[in-house]
Structures are given as C-alpha cells and as structure tokens.
Amino acid sequence: MARQLDSYSLCMYRNRSFQHDLPRPSEVIIPHASSSISLGSKLNFRAETRYQENPSRKSVLRHGFMWDGSIIDVSSSGKLVKEYVDDGRHEDAVQVYVKMLECGIPVEEFRFFPMLIKAFGAISDIEKVRQIHGHLLKLGALDDIYVLNSLLGVYWKCGVAEDAIQLFEKICTKDLVSWNTMISGFCHSGDYMGSLRIFSQMIRQHGVFPNRVACLSALSSCASIESLIHGREIHAFVVKNNFGDEFLFSALIDMYMKCGDVKNAEFIFGGILNDDSIKGNTVVWNVMISGYVSNGYLSQAVELFQEMLAIQILPDFSTMIAVSGLCSELLDLAVGKQIHVLAISFGLDNDSRVETALIDMYFKCGDPKSGLDIFRKSQNHNTVMWGAVISNCAQSGSPTEALELFHDYNIEYGFVDPVIVLAVLRACSSLILKGEGMEIHGLVVKSGFDSDVFVGGALVDMYAKCGDIESAQKVFHRLPSRDLVSWNALILGYAQNECPNETLKAFRDMQSELIQPNTVSCACILSVCALLSAMLICKEVHGYLLRQGFDSNVLISNSLITTYAKCGDINSSWVIFEKMSERNQISWNSILLGLGMYGHADKVFALFGKMKDAGTKPDHATFTALLSACSHAGRVEEGWKYFRSMVEDYKIEPQLEQYTCMVDLLGRADHLKQAYEMILMMPCVFDDRIWGSLLASCKSHGDERLAEVVASHIFKLDPASIGYRVLLANLYEDYGKWNEVTRVRTEIKGRGLKKRPGCSWIEIKNKTHTFTAGDSSHNQSEEIYAAIDSLTTQIAKAGCI
Length: 801
Known about the structure:
Number of helices: 45
Structural class: mainly alpha
Strand order of the largest sheet: 1-2
Low-confidence stretches: 1-62
Keywords: Repeat
Distance between the termini: 117 Å
Pfam families: E_motif, Eplus_motif, PPR, PPR_2
Number of strands: 4
Organism: Ziziphus jujuba
PPR repeats: 73-107, 175-210, 281-315, 483-517, 584-618, 619-649
Shape: elongated
Protein name: Pentatricopeptide repeat-containing protein DOT4, chloroplastic
Strand content: under 5%
C-alpha cells in the first residue's frame, strides 16, 4: 500500500520545518491507490498521461505498473524520471512518480529524488515544492544530503530565500555543495552581502575551503557591490590554490574592472596572453573590452578589439554589444558603421541583443534614421528593443516619433513596461502634451506602476512641465517612498512654474527626510535665489556646496556665477570664475553677461578675446552678452562690430534675442529711426518685447510720433498689454496731452486691465518679509509706514523731489 501523508504528519512537518503558512493538510494528502490522486490533481498538469490501464489486472502490481505498454518497476521508473527531466518534460516526470504512489510501489526504494525535485522546481510553483518537501520528510528521505541540496537549489530557483535559509540551518552535515548552493543563491537573488557573509562563514567558522564554483559566485558578488578588499582576498586564495581557468580569470577581470582597479585587471589579462589554452577564449577578451569602456579607457578598448581581430579570435554577440557601446561613448559614427558591417560579416546582426546595441549606437552617434531602419527590419522585436528605440527617440529630439512608436508597441503587446513608460512621459514633457500624459498616467495606474518611485518622478516632471503643478504635487505626495529623483522633479517643477517660496520649502523638506541634495537640486535652488535676489540663501547654499565638495562641479560653478551676479555681487562671480579649473561655453557666457549687467564693457571685450584664445567657440548667448554690454555702456560702434562679426566671421544667424539687444542699443543712443527700420527688416518674427524696448526709447528721447506707431504694433500683438499702455500714457503726460492721457487710461479701464502690484522683500535675521504695493497686512505695517512718512518729509526738507 502506498505511503500516505496524512493531516497529522503534515502538521508535524509544518511545525518542524517552517514558520510561515503552508497549504492546508486536506490539499496535500497523498491517498491510497484506490482513492483519487490528490497530489497529481493538485499539480493540475496538462501533460499527456503515459500509463495504460489493464482492466483484468486493474493495473495494480506490487513492484511495477504499466506505462506506454511496458511494466515499469522502481528502478526503471527512476531512469524514466531522469530521462524526462533531461528532455525538459518535467510534468511527465512528476506524473511517473504520482503513478508509482497510486499503484502502491514502495517509493522508499526510489533513488532519483534529486531529479524529481528538479522537475518540481522547473514548474516554479513554490506550493508544490513545499508539498514534495513534506512528502520526502514523511518518507525519511531527507537524511540524504543529495536530496537536501536539491531542495536547497529549488527553493533558491523559486525565489524563496527564507525557506532555503531555514532548510540550510537544519542540515546537520553540510557538504561543499550545500555551501555553494547558498553562496550562489544569495548572489543570484541580489543579496550580495549575504553571499559574501556565507562565503566567509564557510571558511572561518566551519573550516570548509571553497572550490572554484564558490569563488565564482563570491567574485560576482564582489563585482556587484564593488568590494575590492574582499575581491583581492578571493584572488589571493585562487592563486594559492591554483584554481586558474578561463572562467575564474574572467570573473577576476570583471571584478577588478567593476571596482575601478584597471591596473590589476590588465595584470591578470597580461598573464592570460601567455597561456594559449585561455588566450583564444572570447569571453576573457569581452570582459576586458567592456571593462575598459565602463571605466572610460576608450582608446585602450579600441586597441584591444583590433588586437583581438588581428590574432583571429572570433567575436561573439557579447563582443559586438561591447564595441557598439564603445562607439556610443566615442560618438564615432564612422567606426560604428564598421562595427555594423563586422556584425553582418560574422552573422551576428540577427541577434536581438546585437540589434538593440546597434540601434542605441546609431541614435547616440546622431544617426537616428539608421537606428530606426534596423528596428523596422528586425524580426526579433522584444520589450528591451522597443524600450531602446522609444527611449532614444525621446532623448534625441524625436518625442513625436517616440509617442507614435509607443502607440504601436501598445497595440502589439497590450501592456506597458516601466522603462518605456519613463521614455514616453519624457516625450510628453518635451512636447508639453498634458492630455497624452494623463492617458499614460491612466495606463500606469491600471498596470500597477503608480507606486514605482521612478515612474512617479517622471509623472511629477510631466505635470510640472505642462504647467499643472497641483497634479504634480498630488502624484508626489501619493508616492509610498520618495527618492532624490522624485524630490528634484518636484523642486524643478516649482521653480519652472515660478513658485519660489514653494521651491525653497520643498528643498528644506527634502533634507528633513534625510535626502541629501545633489548638484541638480542645488543648481535649481541657486536659480531661485537669482530670481529672488536672495543673497543670504545663496551664501548658505554655497557653503553647503563647499562642504560637500560640489564647488568644483562645472554646472554648480556656472549657477553660482549667475546667481551672485543677479544678487548684486559681481565680485564673487568673478572670483568663482577665476578659480574654475574647467570651463565650458556656459561658464564664459555667464560671466560675460554678468559683467555686462554692471557696465564693465571693457572687461567684457577683453574676456571675449581670452575666450577665443581658449578655443571656446561663441554662440548666440555669447553675442547676446556682448551686445547687452554694448547697450548698457552705450557703445554703438562696438555693438555694430560684434553684430557683423557674428554673421560674417562665425556664420551665426541672428535671432530675436540679438536683434532686441541691437534695437535697445540703437534706441538708447537716440538712433530711433535706425532701430525701427531694423525691426521691420529682420527675418525672424518680432514680439512685443522688441517693440516695448523701442517704445521705452521713444519716451526717453521724447519721440511722440514714433511712439504712437510702435504702440499700435504692440497692441496688435498683445491687446491685453497694460504695461506698455501705461508707458504711452506717461509719455502723453510728459507732453501735457491730457486728452490722450485720459483716452489711454479710459481704454485700460474699459478693457478691465489691471496692473500687477509691485512687490519687494527684505531679509532680516534669516526671515523674508514681503511687501506688495498698497498692502498693510504686515504685523508692523503702522511702524513701517510711519518710517516711510518720516523719510519722505526729510527728503522734501533736503530739497529733493
């Protein structure tokens, strides 16, 4: 009679082996032969049953049963289970064992439990694995270390680390396979410190010396967490025990490369080149090339790839992926095309991984058309390839294409992937498409990604870029956890939507949640300080940056130059610029613009010469700074010189910003007619600002007739403009044309236009006090207005108007 795993036995097993819930006993009872097969039915297999009934004998044999027309005994059933497992027919293997139970075969004589456990593990159903564990406990089969090790491996394969750990702790006599299974299990599950901890425990506490398999897993863990100290210890052990083979050498090179120790990686690789049996191994070369690329040793990676081809080592798909990434880093399209040709010649171009790497390379090297061509011709579309092409379209200035591809992807697959969602949300942000962004938000919620911190950050950014800061706040506050990226998205959103106070508060709240700001956070706060002219906060942020060592960052230095200039401290801007060890185009433009604001025209012109000598090419922003400096200093001749130089020497087509600077320069110098003609002749579309600049010049120089013409242009462009109407009314008032003054002001009133009240603020003892014109809400307003009246009286007594 077959053994039965009854309810009492299961409960005993449950208490002895696990601390968490198992299936109910009634669900896992293995019945007598005359009963229905609970184990088999519970497994719910769809495999075709191979046993055959004989009605006359009822198929019940003491030592065998019928299967595919043959009598199968204990020994041959084990071999059949092994055969099925080796062929990948795991469900059939389990069905053979279930039939043994049904027919009352003495399963305690079965010697292929490790293979049977492997079959259960391949089904990846943890509840079924726990059932066979309980069954083996009942049979007393867990005295066999091979069976225990098989169970350990299956628990790791099913992703239940707790079960594996508890079983491991109950093994009285652990062998090397037991330890190796735990070391590799922790490593593959992502618990790299756990893997190294078990590795150390095996040696120090139990005196078991690792073999090459344990060393491979431990080295992989060291590489993943960049633990160079542990990696070097394992390297020493490998050398001492002469474990050297191509797999260990590859693992050591990978570990050193990922830990940034290129010199030791080169030392190991150099030793390999003397061993002909390892020298021709493509994997070793691939690891070395990838390591060079990841560490920025791009020229060495190119040389190594050339050497690899020269000694006729055939590249594989990993080689093609590595060298495609190399071309992406080099931004070398010509070499990238050569790599593509090589991939075709070696027959590797149809591999989906190689195709994806080539698509990424073409996009990064500025040839999106070729990347899209590979994608459209590919027969190997998968989620990774879709993600690569959509992400690259969103990042390379083709957001519309990204959204169209996402639509096609959604039709083909019917579900969304987090990586693709991030890309299309970035596309919506670029195009300011709130409607499409909300649709994607709906898909995110439906797919259960709304709690993902990365997707949440992208949604915050999308809503903020689309001007809906309230929705951005709602998404942000609903996130179960918030990281630096999501905080930065909110802070940038506040700053972009002109909410300076909210920006500063979010910056403080982020730090109160122990999230440390990075260069992006600080650059954003500095832009708000520049907007508010908040010198005190600027200095506080600068101090923080110095303590964190961020002051050498180019982005931060550029932001500090601009902020100090706008806060009225051009000297600090200059000191920061002078101390910069590395400068980019923005660095030069920032200091030129700052110096120009303060009328240091001669210094601006001299610095522009140094900029050219340093090999930095000027751009539109550079000439805006130069022309603005000329305007502030009234240097018309220099202004014309730089304007012509921009067009003739640097082939830069002037844009509205540069034309506005020239109109302002000419207007200030009373060349009003010339300024008016320049506006009419410029090729770009004008806006109200350029006309407004000329209108201000007309008022300054008292040109009433031209002012009326300019005003008519402004009011056509912006009928709701009030500032320019007030300016025109003031001009009429200067000429004593009260009828015109009344007409303009009546028109303002009739249109319901209201001027935004002026606002000013002052910082006293780290507190900002804000004042709006006509406002008396401040708690010291009576004292403030009394002081103003006193000052006004003293000014009048001094004879000032």
